[in-house]
Amino acid sequence: FVKFANIEEDTPSYHRRYDFFVSRFSAMCHSCDQDPEVQTEIRIAGIRGIQGVVRKTVNDELRATIWEPQHMDKIVPSLLFNMQKIEDIDSRTGPQSSPTGGVKEENPSVLAENCFRELLGRATYGNMNNAVRPVFAHLDHHKLWDPNEFAVSCFKIIMYSIQAQYSHHVIQEILGHLDVRKRDSPRVRAGIIQVLLEAVAIAAKGSIGPTVLEVFNTLLKHLRISVDLEMGDRRGSAGSATLSTSSKENDERIVQNAIIQTIGFFGSNLPDYQRSEIMMFIMSKVPVLGATSQSLDPGHLGDLGTRRIQIMLLRSLLMVTSGYKATTISNALPAPFLDPLLSPSLMEDSELRQLVLEILHNLIDRHDNRAKLRGIRIIPDVSDLKIKREKISRQDVSFMKKHGQQLYRHIYLGCKEEDNVQKNFELLFTSLALTTIELANEEVVIDLIRLAVALQDIAIINEDNLPMFNRCSVMALVAAYLNFLSQMIAAPAFCQHVSKVIETRSVEASYFLPETIFKDKCDLPKSLEKDETDLFFLTNKIAESLGGSGYSVERLSVPYVPQVTDEDRLSRRKSIVDTVSLQVDILPGNNTEDKVDNTEEITFEALKKAIDNNGLEEQEKEKRRLVIEKFQKAPFEEIAAQCETKANLLHDRLAQILELTIRPPPSPSGTMTITAGHAHYHSVPVYEMKFPDLCVY
């Protein structure tokens, strides 16, 4: 049969069918003869027979019956059954290499793999799915998703063997199978997701096709399902902590980590324009206060489930944003992305805040300076870091004018959280430093100094009753940042003031410096004295030192107060509305008595006026509704008659106006005819008038 299959025929034979051969050769591939040598020979013969059938039929488009499901369901499992017997799987996962000798050809597993590669290489757009679906059935039937080494090996072979433009078909099939098996055990789902990761890793080098958004949508949906199952198991085991339940939770964590890995790898291989869309897509799924219906609704999962979904999605977003380099910061942080990212809903605990800051670092740091700023410390000489920076662009200046207050506010509120740990303060320091490097012009520098002084006031005044560790950590953060900033802007007097305060602290209050407060064992003070001004950075001295360097320091006298957002009023968390309502900039030289108070006194008359206005609006709405309803429901004759009456009045008035302008023409050659009238469904009145020359009305 193999010799017959190798004969090239000039004309196809339409009456010849190979159903019998497919069945017989497939059965031979599963031979279980008691004699191992005979068994191997029969299996090899079966594989060669299948290879002959493929070669004889696969290239003839008029005889495409070999690709029908009833044949593929026999051929593909037969090949996979023999491929499974090979011991060294990893040695065959790359692109096909030529056989090194005749011995390997006698190995059923190698022969089956070569035949499988040949079959897939000949698959076209229309029959690709028929060749891939039996693979899923075989892996399901033989429970090969856990462990999934063979499954990964199979799909690597598939991805390397098919034509590159068909890669997205395979990815779609894996996603579809993941949906089918969504209620299976966590380890099976994790095995399928791992296979998807390997397929995506190969497809990302070529054409991924239209499946980009579908991949992320499906993965995020399964992330939601996994968290749902984890929380359900946790609720079911409340009060009875069993080993099996704990194991289930750990297995769900494996699924979640596999999903995040896949999202991150896929996202990091996309071009920037697609990556920005995926960032927006993932951010739209994060459940925050006031979020759109697109977000992954935590529903009945409660606060713990919501937090779990938020953490998982932010971890995915962190991986996607890694290595992203936008030309302008407004491209990296558009308002629809920045607003939910900096939402108070994502400040509920320490881990969430860390993830948000790390995502910001990925997007703000366009010159790879973050590694040089790792860890919070007093840097003796910033020039040793060899920081890369460029002159701030006009677009970045515009971004800071529009969104700078949001960034300052996030840092300010982040410092006031009681559950902050060392990593939080390190990330806050890096955020301030990166903002200085990438986005700071003279105006932003003044704002950042105001912010730093306000952070110092948090620790000194302590209106929020923060623990002593937090207060000292905030003081250390301010010291580290002002030391960095003073050297970056190269203002000698400012540097001198900062250095003097740091030297005083190192002698009298070392717990106000990061090198001391973040040690494992640090003796904390019992209280902070407000009158120890030598230990604090003073606004008047900073203003005096910067004024000598040419900075406009009037705004330094205005204490920084964070903006209040609508979400603050809706949030369940302790809002800053309790302590501050708005920010007022009072510049020296302006007489505050001349200021007009824009706040309107709330009186009975004011309320009555507001109610009356609302009443008028309601009347207008009702009037518009009646007009629309009339045109929708009234008889046509009635509407036509009413319109005709109004049109006739307008027509008569127009005629009067035109009659006043009629004058005799100076000569026949300078005449023109104007036709004026109105068109009804039954009549068209016409007027002809002579004009001496062209007129404009």
Automatic annotation (TrEMBL):
Cellular compartments per GO CC: plasma membrane
According to the record, the signal peptide region is none
Q: Which GO terms describe its biological process?
A: protein localization to plasma membrane
Per the record, the domain of life is Eukaryota
Among InterPro entries, the record links this protein to: ARM-type_fold, EFR3_Homologs
Protein name, as recorded:
EFR3A protein
